[in-house]
Amino acid sequence: MSKGEASISDEEWERFQREAEAGTQGAPEEPSARARMVTRRLREETARPEGWRTHQPARQRRGKGWYVVALILAAGLLFMALDPGRVTDWFSGGGSGDTPLAAESVRPDQPPATESAAQQPTLQQPFRGSPAARWGDGTAGITVPEARATGWMSEAQVSQALDRSRDFLAASNLDSGVLLGQPPEKAIALINPKQKDVQDYLATAFRAPSKDADPLMLFSRFATEKVRLVGDVVKTRGRITYREGKRGAVEVTTDVTYVYPVAHAAERSDEVARTIVRREVVMSWDDPAKVITEPGTFSLVSYKSDTTNGGCDNDTGFYVPEFRSARTATGPGADREVDPYDRSTSMNARMQGADDTECGTATRS
């Protein structure tokens, strides 16, 4: 081939197309979704690959416009093969950058795309470099389904139960006073006072928190002598579902991930960390004719909590996040990896095989 000329045979071009469509070997795999129930320690995020790769086309040869078009098409095919999730997100209305995501109506089938490791959070942009930048603010990120008559409740009563279920999530995970350590009185007022085991747990959890009576299983609270919240926005993503439960009750399941940006308590510090909490709370709005309850309250059926960067092996009753400048990844289970933004698995699957004594490692914050 002489200098200044470039050409490829038909056989080479067909082979290239087939390889581009099939993808490349050795691409990074998604991390394990296994997680422990309460806390997990983050590791230092160094030398991570970029979220996608690019292909630089060859210089155009004069008089060969078809060749440039062919290379552009090839680059597009290669891009799709290397990062199909990003392309799917574009064409499904997901947008890019900070464009808000559509509401989560069903469980996603894959984790969100990985952002560049260089996109670190700041006091002005605390969700920078995180999928949460495109999530909803507060209750706006929690999808509430359309109400229909179910069990002992009419359509209007189901609608009210759904609204109060969301109110409980807001009062326990979004209320600024509760986040700063105040008692979650509004949230507790929505729990059936006749449910003795739960009331005993609540009384003990705030008086003498421990692994067996941890308020962080239901409520988000930070040790304000150590950290301060950055801004007044908590990013959320999740949904509420419901069905007819036992004795004709309306059983409501909430599955929501909350992202809290924090900085050191010292005002002069500008380093930002994020605590990420995914909770599943199942509530039963019981028929008072069949269950001893108080009007306007629900009984707790179950509750699960999975936390990233809340303090490893922590039983203080408050989240104690670590910062990059002092982060370690030691302790039992530190080699277990999890993506805290991955909502493609159920909470049961995510926590399968988890051990409360293990801290694990998050792949991103």
Describe the structure.
This protein has about 375 residues and is an alpha/beta fold. It has a domain of about 230 residues. Helices cover about 20% and strands about 15% of the residues. It is built from 8 helices and 10 strands. Strands 2, 3, 4, 5, 6, 7 and 8 form a 7-stranded mixed β-sheet that branches. The protein has a 3-stranded parallel β-sheet with strand order 1-10-9, with no helix packed on it. Helix 1 runs parallel beside helix 2 and helix 2 crosses helix 3. It is globular. The N terminus is likely disordered.
Features:
disordered N terminus; 365 residues; 3-stranded parallel β-sheet; alpha/beta
**Major sheet:** 7 strands, mixed
Annotation field: number of helices: 8
Query: What percent of the residues sit in helical stretches (DSSP H or I)?
Result: 10-25%
Low-confidence stretches: 1-7, 19-63, 85-96, 329-333
Helix/strand/pairing class, anyone?
alpha/beta
Show the helix and strand layout.
Layout: H1 10-22, E1 41-42, H2 65-82, H3 84-91, E2 136-137, E3 142-143, H4 155-173, H5 176-179, H6 185-188, H7 196-207, E4 227-229, E5 235-244, E6 250-264, E7 272-285, E8 299-308, E9 337-338, H8 347-350, E10 361-362
Parallel strand pairs: 1-10, 3-5, 9-10
Antiparallel strand pairs: 2-5, 4-6, 5-6, 6-7, 7-8
Helix pairs in contact: 1-2, 2-3
